[in-house]
Amino acid sequence: MKPVFLRVEGFGAFVAPAEIDFRRLDASTLLLVHGPTGAGKTTLFDAICFALFGVASGTRTPEQLRSDHCPPGTVTRVLFEFTLPSGRYRVTREFKPARKQDSVIEKGALEFLDLAGTPLRPAITQKKQILEEVELLLGLTKEQFRQIVMLPQNDFQQLLLADTKSKQPILEKLFRASVYSRMTDILLQFTKQQRDRLEELKSRRAGFLESLGVEDADGLGAKREERGRALAAADQKLPGLRTRWEESRGLREEGDRLARNHGELRRAAGELEQHLSLRPEIDQHRQKLALALRAEPFRQRLDDVEERARSIQSRDNAVMDIRKEQDSTRVRLDHALAEKSRSAARDEESALLQAELHRLDAARPILEQIEKDRAASASAEKAIRQLEGELTKASAEEVAAQQELASYNTELPGLEQTALRASGLAEQVRHLKSLRTPLNELHQLRRELPRKEADVRGAHEAVRSATEQSTRIAAELQELEHLWIGSQASRLAGTLADGQPCPVCGATNHPRPAETGGPQVTDAALNAARQAREKAEQARQEAMSRESGAENALRQTVAFVTNHENILGEAATMAPATYAAELARQEKEFAGADAASQRLNTLRSNRNSLEKRLATMQLAGQELRERFNDARTNQALVADRVEVAQRSLPADVADARTLETRSGTIRLRIAALKDASEAAQRTHAELTETMIRLESVLDAENKNVGAERAMLARKRADLETDLAQQQFTSVQQIAEALLDDPHRAALQERIREWDERAAALQNTVEERTRVVGGRALPDVAALIRLEEDAREQYERAQRELAILRKEVGDLADAISQLSRGSAQIAAAGEETGAAEELSSTVSGRNNAGITLASYVLSVFLDEIIAFANQRLRVISRDRYALVRRTEADDKRRRTGLDLDVFDNHTGERRQVETLSGGEQFYAALSLALGVADAAQQHTGGVRMDAMFIDEGFGSLDSETLDVAIRALMDLQADGRLVVIISHVEELKTRITSRLEVVKGRNGSTLRWQNA
Fold first, then answer.
1. Which residue in 634, 792, 839, 848 has a CA-CA distance of 20 to 30 Å to 566?
2. What is the CB neighbour count within 10 angstroms for residue 293?
3. Contact 873, 854 (CB under 8 A)
4. What separation in angstroms does the CA of 718 have from each of 305, 722, 725?
5. Residue 162 burial by CB count (10 A; 0-12/13-18/19+): exposed, middle or buried?
6. 543-600: pLDDT as tens digits
7. Does residue 78 surpass a pLDDT of 90?
8. Residues pairing with 31 in the sheet
């Protein structure tokens, strides 16, 4: 987040509107806000924090943020614009007291802007939605913002002293690392699901055995053998029952045929009598068809007359449409005439606008004078720059010292910047080297993925093929079993011989043996089909097992790839050659940075000696500095004169840009009035031409309609003459006699069907009379009862056999299912054990006692510490360095993100709380800058382009303060802004961009200095 513009009104110490345009800083990135105590310096930080999150940077409430000098009923308002890599944004918040003295009414808006400041889409106005969107844009909550971006007064060391529990959510937000906590939660949930699945499988196996009435697999096998013996006994009994049923069925079928012939004879005679009763209707159809054939030659001429009648009706409709268009055009012509008559009113408005232009032109000289005063202010600025040059020439010795110091300062920033990067580069080289093994593993896993995906596809195809094969063979077996049952009687009939006893009933006379034709199925063929079905089912189970193994292997490889990619982050996309080149480049840069660090120590020693001599020389330039301050005062007077001139301008013309905008708008309106008059003239002329054209078209259409009507009358007369010759009385009679093709075909088909049906019924009556041959109607009911009794006995035995066969098959399937279930339980047990071991490791139940999220964040924290120590070593003059604590003082506390400090003077590490106030301040400052540096290094991390520090510099000695300021000024290379609130006078001479808060009786105002 980088600030662009801040405006406050009725807020804290600022009653009148006060603005800060951060764009005035240009290339400078260090801004000092100073002024007397109580002037409202911290209020500016409160305003930024209140605009973003609806709360102050400290503990004040909205009621306490409102200025005590605000008149009743006025609004307190804060407007803040800022930029992010995603775009530019403006947030506005305002509130005023409600009727109750202890409450306020608050409103707000968040706008999305383009680079010119124009809104891109509707603003968000709901308070809750504004807060959620701001937190999403910044990637920080209000508490985290006040810990790492806006360091409030007396609370800047909060992040430095925070424990692991407090640091973890901040680091997760900064580096978008909450995914590791979610991974741990997902893995714990997965482990629970695996345990539940294992218990469910065990419970299902126990329930399965209980439903079968057995305790274990041995009991299930014994039960299958017992039902197999019962099946063999039932199978031997079935053939005799079937023979008895077939004999009784033959008697019943013969009786059925005789009874059916008697019935068909009665039905055919009745139907013939009823069919002949329809002869009169058929004769009418024959007459209607003959009349239609006689009228058919006149169909085309009749259609022609009707078509011409429809054409005339269409032309009549066209004439009506033209007349309607005439009426519409006439109305529009009247409107155009009225619009043409309004030209006088437009001329009057144009004259008034011309007068407004003259009034605006009168304000132009005042604006020109303002520009001249501003030019004078620029000249004064130039004179001030000249005085600054004279200061540098106060003495030849000072000039020589400044030149020598400038040569040092020219080289030192680059060396310091390079040296500061040495520790970070060393850490980066170490980090890159640590990526070598997981990166190689990731590339190997990615090469394996296509093969395992192909294995899964092949396994899917094998399962599909095996399933189709098993289904087909099962259907064939079912058909063979049906045919085998049907072939038993014919097989028995083939063994019978006259005089030989039947093996089923013992009779030696076989009057009606079963037919021996039809398909025959042998026992060997049936057994072979059953074996083929068992093999097909076994092949399907094996294919399903291979499919499950291939899918598990693919899922495991994908999980390993995802895990490596999450660990490697953006490095996961690096090719091996790219990785090797990047490592070589980082090692080369580290070697250069280390050499620069040694050169830096030598130059610092020389510069310190030179600065002591230069301090003595600067006393002689005090008089020139006083003249410099006088020139600044004169420049302020010119600025006041510009402000007075601006107040004399009309309220609606604040500057030349507004004047030109207003003038341009009026000129555009005058041009628009002129265009409107000309457009009215054109419209009237065009509509007049349209009316003339419509009159001409209407005359032509009327003539065409008359000619069409005469032609129609002639054709109708000719048609009626020809009809009379064919003995038709009228055109209507022809129209009624004509039949369309479907209707004519239907009549013909109806006549043909009646004739064919009559002949067929007559033949049936004669045939059934011959077949019956005078035989009496049999007692079919008695024959049916005899057959039903035999069939019932056979089917009962067949059902019992089927039940036994199904029980035996079900028991065999149950044995196979129990075996598969046991295999699943064993596999689930192995998977559950592996998942429990992994989830225990990532959730902190490991030798180190650290969770996966804390471990990853500790890596990020190490990177932050590396960046922070680059500055802390400089500011503390190589005394202190931050280190991460790896062991907890209390085993019950979470650890891994706590900080200690290493003291080079004592060679020992100690808690950061033991540092003095000044030491804690610059340690916290170094840590905050390290957080910003590290976050910027990570794609997707929170971007912090600004930092706000309220006080704390008063605790630093002069030399440490100088080093700290130089460390902050190093941020200018990457464009980050640092805003400091401080009373320290020495900062005014070290920071050129300053904003003074001027305290007054009726509120404070802002004044830029040297910016």
1. 848
2. 11
3. no
4. 11, 7, 11
5. middle
6. 887 887 887 788 778 877 776 676 676 777 778 788 788 778 877 877 777 777 777 7
7. yes
8. 979, 993
The residue assigned the tokens 């009349």 is: 291
- Count how many Cα atoms sit within 13 Å of the Cα of residue 493 in the half-sphere of its side chain: 19
Sign of the alpha-carbon dihedral angle for 254, 258, 260, 264: positive
Length of the chain counted residue by residue: 1011
Measure the CA–CA gap between 239 and 504, rounded to whole angstroms: 8
pLDDT band at residue 89 using 50, 70 and 90 as cut-offs: very high
Would you tell me how many other CB atoms lie within 10 Å of the CB of residue 180?
A: 20
pLDDT by residue (tens digit) across 706-723?
A: 777 777 777 777 766 766
pLDDT in tens, 522-539: 778 778 888 888 888 788
Q: Report the C-alpha gap between 530 and 480 in whole angstroms.
A: 10
Structure tokens at 418: 């390079």
* Angle of the 958-969 helix axis to the 852-875 helix axis, nearest 10: 120
User: Phi and psi for 821 in degrees, rounded to 5?
Assistant: -60, -40
Asked if residue 481 has pLDDT above 70, the reply is no
Bin 1010: left if φ > 0, else alpha if -120 < ψ < 50, else beta.
left
**Structure tokens that stand for 357 in this block:** 């232009």
**Cα separations in angstroms, 106 against 57, 64, 74, 136:** 18, 14, 13, 22
CA torsion through residues 588, 592, 593, 597, sign: positive
Q: Which residue has the tokens 């011409």?
A: 308
Dist CA 959 CA 485 (whole Å): 111
The whole-number average pLDDT for the span 228-253 is 82
Question: What is the spatial distance between Cα 754 and Cα 758, in angstroms, rounded to a whole number?
Answer: 6
Reported as half-sphere exposure (CB side, CA atoms, 13 A), residue 382 has a value of 6
Cα–Cα distance for residue pair 551/545, rounded to 1 Å: 10
Closest by CA to 184, choosing from 838, 870, 790, is 838
- 144 burial type by CB count under 10 A (0-12 exposed, 13-18 middle, 19+ buried): buried
Q: Is the predicted pLDDT of residue 939 greater than 50, yes or no?
A: no
CA 53 to CA 1: how far, in whole Å? 14
Distance CA 797, CA 780 (A): 26
Contact 419, 970 (CB under 8 A): no
CA distance 33 to 948: 10
CA distance 3 to 26: 13
| Token pair recorded at residue 146 | 């006040």
H-helix or E-strand containing 382? helix 364-392
Please list, in sequence order, all residues whose beta carbon lies within 8 angstroms of the beta carbon of residue 623, skipping any fewer than 6 positions away. none
* Range in 598-612, 787-801, 849-863 with the lowest mean pLDDT: 598-612
Q: Residues 776-785: pLDDT tens digits?
A: 777 778 878 8
> What contacts 839, CB < 8 A, 6 or more positions away?
184, 187, 188, 190, 191
Beta bridge partners of 9: 77
Residues 207 and 223: their CA atoms lie apart, in Å, by 17
Q: Worst-scoring range by mean pLDDT, 70-79, 233-242, 842-851?
A: 842-851
Separation in Å, CA 516 to CA 486, 487, 489, 503, 978: 11, 8, 8, 17, 108
What pLDDT, on the 0 to 100 scale, is given for residue 954? 66
Region 468-483: what's the mean pLDDT?
Answer: 77
Rounded-to-integer distance, Cα 869 and Cα 215, Å: 71
Radius of gyration, alpha carbons of the chain? 53
Tokens of 972: 């200018």
Non-local (6+) Cβ contacts of 121 within 8 A are 112
HSE-CB for 527 with a 13 A CA cutoff: 3
Please, are residues 891 and 929 in contact by the beta-carbon 8 Å criterion?
no
Please answer whether residues 903 and 880 qualify as being in contact, where contact means their C-beta atoms are separated by less than 8 angstroms: yes
Residue 663 near residue 339 (C-beta atoms within 8 A): no
Q: What's the CA angle centered on 215, arms 214 and 220, to 5 degrees? A: 50
